[in-house]
Amino acid sequence: MKTNDDFAAMRPEEQNQLQIERLQSTLNRAYRNVPFHKQRFKEMGIDLSDIKSLSDIARLPFMDRQHISENYPYNLFAVPLRDIVRIHTAPGITHKPTVSGYTSQDLLTWQSILARALKAAGVTCHDILQIDLTSGLANWGRDYKSGAEAIEASVIPHTPMSIEKKLMVLRDYKTSALVTTLSSVRQLAAYVRKNDIHMNLFELNRVILAGEAIPEADRRSLENDLHVQVRAHFGLSEVPGPAIGFECEVCQGFHIHEDHFLAEIIDPATGRVLPEGESGELALTTLTTRAFPLIRFKTGDQAELIKTPCACGRSLRRMTWQGLRTDDLLNIDGIKVHKKQIQRSIQTLLDLPTDASGFYIRERDEKKYIEIWIPVNDAIFSDEIKELEALIHRVENTLFENIGIPVVIRLKEKNAI
User: Fold this and answer.
1) Which residues contact 349 (CB under 8 A, 6 or more apart)?
2) What are 283-328's pLDDT values in tens digits?
3) Do the Cβ atoms of 318 and 306 come closer than 8 Å?
4) Of 242, 231, 232, the residue nearest 111 (C-alpha)
5) In angstroms, rounded to a whole number, what is the distance separating the alpha carbons of residues 5 and 89?
6) Contact of 57 with 296, CB cutoff 8 Å
7) Which end is more exposed in the chain, N or C (fewer Cβ atoms within 10 Å of the end residue's Cβ)?
8) Which domains, from first to last, does the chain contain?
9) Given this model, what pLDDT does residue 377 score?
């Protein structure tokens, strides 16, 4: 199947030339406008005029999440603040969030990226698309809304709802496509089974999952329970957004928007570029992002590039991604959180050593949350139960605000942790 996408319609040599031109433009813009990049290129003796092929990118230094934290909030922006029309934040690996900015052109680029990914999932102008994402991925909801509107689908924007009301909207509004997370749709399927709800009363025919990889057993179970087609998207909650990779109708890997991102698979220990077919860490370089260019950004996601062309006919290369990590970050419903970040937050809020508390990823009603065990000591113990409950409630709310994931605190004896 041929797509009508301009890039996909190009010959391989034309695609390659466009990528090189966009890479050179990105590198020059970053060098001129971002002191961080300029200094690092100079320190490594890199002459950007020598970057003449895509393989030359291996000569450039990597970026990681620590660099983003160190340059909080705007020091990695490549355009003046007056050109920024949207600012997104996401949990960082320190107490400071990740901040990314978008120009009006960047938003149009993301609109086209999401439109392409939604079309590949079968969404058309005849669909009513409902967005149901966690609060930590609310920024993605805006991108999905924009992409769906670009293909003239009707959109029900992201609004937090109880599962009963969510089903009411799905049924009464005749939703045909649902953008959500794996845990949310599993919760929905469990509720449908428990209450013996007949899905033939609904118009829903496809579900698009954002944030997490989906095991094939879960895909088959969801498709059977909800009578839908399930497609998954790969994205970064930190930067720059959803659907960097998308599944087509074949569902054998994620197509990468190669006209907007350059993907490499590297050895996470040495940084050596690995050949296609070998598993390693995914590194991404943005080719069209103006406000917040990323150069060889180490995502921490374990992936591998697929050698063979896809049976769908799209020329965009694919990667496999099963949700595994090469670092210590936790992926909870698509939101990435560092273990040390949780420990530092507890230390700051309750004046405890970073190793005093323990935490666990729990699941209740198909929804994930973090359970934190805190040792009872004189610093936080109070004879007044109401005071202690108020303290716990404040800490839970502050942590949820900082990391975007529900938190439950349990007070425990010190030797129980």
Assistant:
1) 395, 398, 399
2) 999 999 999 999 999 999 999 999 999 999 999 999 999 999 998 8
3) yes
4) 242
5) 31
6) yes
7) N
8) 6-102+248-327 (3.40.50.12780), 108-233 (3.40.50.12780), 335-416 (3.30.300.30)
9) 66
350-409 residue pLDDT tens: 777 656 678 888 888 777 889 988 887 665 555 677 778 888 888 889 888 877 788 999
Burial-class residue 199 by CB neighbours within 10 Å (0-12, 13-18, 19+). Answer: middle
Name the residue type at position 394.
Answer: R
pLDDT of residue 379: 58
- C-alpha angle with apex 211: 291 to 104, nearest 5 degrees? 25
State which H helix or E strand residue 395 sits in. helix 385-403
| DSSP code for 95 | S
Both tokens of 322, joined, read 């099963």
Claim: this prediction has a pTM higher than 0.85: yes
Question: Which residue do the tokens 């296609």 mark?
Answer: 276
Rg (CA), the chain: 22
Q: Which of 332, 388, 334, 390 is nearest to 360 (CA)?
A: 332
Sequential DSSP letters for 16-29 = HHHHHHHHHHHHHH
Task: Tokens for 215, please give them.
Answer: 């095991």
Q: Where does 157-200 have alpha helices with state H?
A: 163-172, 182-194
Query: 54: closest CA among 204, 259, 244, 328?
Result: 259
Put residue 352 in one of left, alpha, beta given phi > 0 → left and psi -120 to 50 → alpha. beta
